[in-house]
């Protein structure tokens, strides 16, 4: 049985989001960024892990600023304000627990 195909959303200019897999406990999401695009600063109650599949990004997590490239990852605890700037076009693979109902 093939996996369901989720639609592509555009949450910010130059950013495409697509849910890859989900259940009530976990969600896996692809975010594709054009160079210079930003993921707006925000927070949510979900714990998030982010893996850099392609490109380079400057992440802002709380009071930290971190530059990450291919193969790097970061965990963002529940409630922590965060965002990013894409330095080189790329893709992030994010996991959220529990799933982000607002992405469905």
Task: Kindly summarize this structure in a few lines.
0% of the residues lie in helices and 61% in strands. It has strands at 8-9, 15-22, 27-33, 38-42, 47-61, 64-69, 73-76, 82-97.
Q: Overview of this structure, please?
A:
- The chain is mainly beta and 104 residues long.
- The protein has a single domain, classed as Sandwich (Jelly Rolls).
- The chain has strands at 8-9, 15-22, 27-33, 38-42, 47-61, 64-69, 73-76, 82-97.
- Strands 1, 2, 3, 4, 5, 6, 7 and 8 form an 8-stranded antiparallel sheet that branches.
- A hairpin with a 2-residue loop joins strand 5 and strand 6.
- The mean pLDDT is 96.
- It comes from Paracoccus aurantius.
Task: Give the helices and strands, then pairings.
Blueprint: E1 8-9, E2 15-22, E3 27-33, E4 38-42, E5 47-61, E6 64-69, E7 73-76, E8 82-97
Antiparallel strand pairs: 1-2, 2-3, 3-8, 4-8, 5-6, 5-7, 5-8
InterPro entries: Bacilysin_H2HPP_isomerase (IPR052535), Cupin_2 (IPR013096), KdgF (IPR025499), RmlC-like_jellyroll (IPR014710), RmlC_Cupin_sf (IPR011051)
Domain Cupin type-2: 31-87
Protein name: Cupin domain-containing protein
User: What proportion of the residues form beta strands (DSSP E)?
Assistant: over 45%
Q: What coarse outline follows from CA principal-axis ratios?
A: globular
Number of domains: 1
Q: Looking at CATH, which topology would you report?
A: Jelly Rolls
* Individual helix count: 0
Q: Uncertain runs with pLDDT below 50, 5 residues or more?
A: none
Major sheet description:
8 strands, antiparallel
Summing up helix and strand content along with how strands pair, one would put the structural category as mainly beta
Rg over CA atoms, rounded to whole Å, is: 13 Å
Q: How much is the average pLDDT?
A: 96
- CATH superfamily heading: Jelly Rolls
Number of strands: 8
């Amino acid at each position: 049985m093939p996996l369901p195909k989720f639609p592509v959303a555009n949450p910010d200019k130059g950013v495409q989001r697509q849910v890859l897999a989900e259940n009530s406990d976990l969600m896996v999401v692809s975010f594709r960024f054009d160079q210079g695009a930003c993921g707006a600063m925000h927070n949510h109650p979900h714990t998030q892990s982010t893996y850099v599949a392609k490109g380079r990004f400057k992440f802002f997590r709380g009071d930290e600023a971190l530059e990450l490239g291919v193969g790097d990852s970061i965990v963002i605890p529940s409630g922590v304000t965060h965002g990013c700037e894409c330095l080189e076009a790329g893709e992030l693979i994010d996991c959220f627990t529990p799933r982000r109902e607002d992405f469905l």
